[in-house]
Amino acid sequence: KCLARAFSPQCHAHSRMGVEGDEGAESECADFLDGFMDVFNEPSGAEVSTEASALRALLRGDRLGALPFLEESFGTRWFHIRSVCPDLDFGLPELLGQFHAFDAAANRALREERIRNYVACRQVGATFGAGAAWAMQPSYLSAHVVRRTRADADCGGEGDGLRTEFVKEEKVVTQFLRDVKATDDEACLDLRGWTVVLNQIQGATPGLRSLHHCIFCLTGCTGGINAYLTPSGAIGKPKHTDDHDIVVLQLHGEKLWTLYDVDYAPMSDVLLTPGDLLYLPQGFPHHAREVHNVTDKAPSLHISLSQKRGAYTLASVLSAVLAIRRSAAAVCGGPQEIEHLRTAFAACGGPLHRLNQLLPGRLHQALVKAFDPDDVSLDVMVEVAALVRAAASDIPALSKQGPTAWEAAQPESDRNERAMLRVAAEITFAELFQLQQLPDDVLVAFVSDALWTLRERWIDEFFTNHGLRPLLPPTACTFPEEGADVLSSGWRRRVGICAFLRCCLLRVDGRRIEIPEEQVPAVKFMMRHSASETFCLSAVPGTSAVVSEAARTLLTFAAIEAVATEAKLMGQQESHVSCAP
């Protein structure tokens, strides 16, 4: 009934689908299928108030508190929220410390060594996982400097009378950073008008590592953290768009952001002061400059968390479905092919086209927070499959269109590359037509396989690039002695872990563990609880030996933690903390 309703001729003709009785779901998906997302409307005061609480929860890793933002606004609305930044162990002194010891080559070598070790050993499971930690994560990967100055008559400009200078040569940048003179007086920080960009700094401090990890767990989107230091009165990069969402946290000084509409006309000026947050969806034109103050010449420092949508866009899901179908037919298919197809399909529409948007928030979050495929209902898969079918019908027409308004503002080389990508997309026209003709249940099966393949790949890519989360000290991972009444002990899932189980392979914060088949029901029971829910091992399905061994494995890899004895739990029930049934 669910399949028939979602793929009925009436539903297909209008590109709408939903679950019976859920008008909100129908409206959400219908809006999504209108083509372009309207990200340019300025949020109302009431919306800002609601999002402030949700974004605070996002930054501390609280999924429940962050749901209003994650399900309703992430990827679709921009927001400026005042005074929501958490207390971080990173600021101007820590950044200057990185400047004076700058050695990008050594950091890249450290990262490459860690990636080689991880790729070589990740199949080993427990023997590898127990020894890996954040210590192998570099503090940064590269840096460059940029400034905008008055254009000479002979040099022209960029439409605003200014020209942009970039310096990326590593030797030059290294010497520049080491020459920066810093004293207790911030006005003496001589940057000579250059904005310094330090890339991929999420490994610089424990606070940045934790922030980076918890946001990935909640959004499922990868990316890094960059730091931007701009001297008083200077303008950094020219107006531009990013191919990812950004979460900006203002740490020091002030910075004025100018936001533009789809035609690059000025739309709004946003002044960020210390503690402020600015969220911009991908494709939102903007530029930033430090606010000149004749009495306060302190520089401006902000960090930007990039959120690459990757696995959760229609272009990605459609690409994975085609690659899996090719693989099933003994034709070439795999991660590289998925990425090539995704890039080609994404080029068919601008940054705001539905092909490049996140799946509707409710569907996206259902996929991100699932511990295993059984956690996601058939209704969710049916809705995603309907979106994929509609997207497959769009690409032939889109690929033959001329440059969009977004592309017209790009350099000629970028437009030529996009044209070549459109040609690559045309190669799949026959396959796209075949996909549209698939029976409903067959398409849903392919979409399900594609989504979980993308989820596995995206998790592996994140931890390969950014390092594993540290394990707890051995004293915290000691399972109760055999003589103790283990089954009456209280346990809960650890806060802020990234865990996913498919078949018998468990991923926990970048580590892979093979789970014996008889332990799978016990592992599912324990890991499906939220971190606020306490359970007793006596309630876990399986024999006492199987349950104890499953719990021991999860404890070793810091997936669960002990809470209290059954006696203490009974006393806590009056405080609304109870054993799971």
Textual characterization of the structure:
- A hairpin with a 2-residue loop joins strand 13 and strand 14.
- It is globular and about 75 Å long.
- The chain is 41% helix and 15% strand.
- The strands form four sheets. Strands 1-9-6-11-5-4-2-3 form an eight-stranded antiparallel beta sheet.
- The chain has 581 residues and is an alpha+beta fold.
- The protein contains 21 helices and 17 strands.
- The model is unreliable at 1-22, 123-135, 405-409 and 565-581 (pLDDT under 50).
Question: Brief overview, please?
Answer:
The two termini are about 30 Å apart.
Salient structural properties:
single chain; 3-stranded antiparallel sheet; 8-stranded antiparallel sheet; 581 residues
Please specify the SSE layout and strand pairing.
Layout: H1 2-6, H2 9-13, H3 23-32, H4 45-59, H5 63-72, E1 79-81, H6 92-100, H7 104-121, H8 126-129, E2 142-150, E3 162-167, H9 170-179, E4 195-199, H10 206-219, E5 225-230, E6 245-252, E7 255-260, E8 266-272, E9 277-280, E10 286-290, E11 300-307, H11 314-328, H12 335-346, H13 361-368, H14 378-399, H15 405-408, H16 412-426, H17 429-436, H18 440-466, E12 490-493, E13 499-502, E14 505-508, E15 511-514, H19 520-527, E16 535-536, H20 544-556, E17 560-562, H21 566-572
Helix pairs in contact: 4-5, 5-13, 11-12, 11-14, 11-18, 12-16, 14-17, 14-18, 19-20
